[in-house]
Amino acid sequence: MPFSSFSSSSTQQINEQSSGTVRKRQNPQHNAMVAPPRAIKSKVVVLGDMGVGKTSILLRHDGQGFTSQMSSTLGASYICSRSRANNGREFELQIWDTAGQERFRSMVPLYMRNSSAAMLVFDITNRQSFRDLASWIKEVERIDETGNVLLFIVANKCDLKEMRMVSEEEGRQFAEKQNAHYCETSALSGKGIETVMSSIAECLLQEQQRLLKESAELGHSSFDLATSSVADAVDEKGAKRRGEEKKNGSGGNASGRGCCTIL
């Protein structure tokens, strides 16, 4: 999809009587650029136990390569990246990398606020990090009252096949029960990382389009995908209704979240 185009208007002739000459001046519309669609801004939070590779994944995505000498994140760090959905629409992902240590758990609600998606990372060679996903998901559900935060379970260190303690099948089954998307990555080789990011962009686009439709049905048709996030799309009335669906278990799934389709 081209980012800009030019009009095909012909040039105009302007008779300048003061000089008695005829000059050709290009129609201003000829050079008028069609501005590309603005990137849709969305906040993504990365959660998981200490040492599972959250920061390494993000550094890989940010083009900084892999290092085995990675210190633990203290509090949180932040990167901003661009990803595209399948239709070419660009997303500006504001990604918050949180600390996995227990002493920083109290800060999670701060970084979760207004998030559109959550990446829940575990280490396939560390079964406890897989078990702990349940508590991380409960934390997301406690903070996300509307049930609209999209979940992505990321199985990292898939290059360490001989040390694997959680099978891909088990990981996928768990993700399905949580109505979450499942991806396998290797921060060492970079495998799967860009797939995760493009999948997040695709799912966010589908979710925002769904919420835009709901907003229009509720009489709030001024929602702008380019300037708003999924969280912004949930008006008070819609949030209350989805909260009731979640409570009653009638939102199409146990968690109340919608599940997008990756084509």
Secondary structure layout plus pairing:
Layout lengths: L11 E5 L4 E5 L14 E8 L6 H8 L14 E9 L5 E9 L9 H5 L4 E7 L3 H5 L1 H11 L6 E7 L11 H10 L3 E4 L8 H25 L12 H4 L2 H13 L15
Parallel strand pairs: 3-5, 3-6, 6-7, 7-8
Antiparallel strand pairs: 1-2, 4-5
Protein model, in words:
By secondary structure, this protein is α/β, with parallel strands linked by helices. It has a domain at 40-203: Rossmann fold (3-Layer(aba) Sandwich), CATH 3.40.50.300. It contains eight helices and eight strands. The strands form two sheets. It has a six-stranded mixed sheet, with helices on both faces. The protein has a two-stranded antiparallel ribbon with strand order 1-2. The radius of gyration is 23 Å and the shape is globular.
Give the overall silhouette.
globular
Major pleated sheet: 6 strands, mixed
Beta-strand content estimate: 15-25%
- Give the class-level CATH name of the domain at 40-203: Alpha Beta
CATH architecture grouping of the domain at 40-203: 3-Layer(aba) Sandwich
Structural class, by secondary structure, is: alpha/beta
Strand order of the largest sheet: 4-5-3-6-7-8
Q: Give Rg in angstroms.
A: 23 Å
What is the N-to-C succession of helices and strands?
EEEHEEHEHHEHEHHH
Number of strands: 8
Number of helices: 8
Average pLDDT works out at: 73
The N- to C-terminal Cα distance equals 18 Å
Helix content: 25-40%
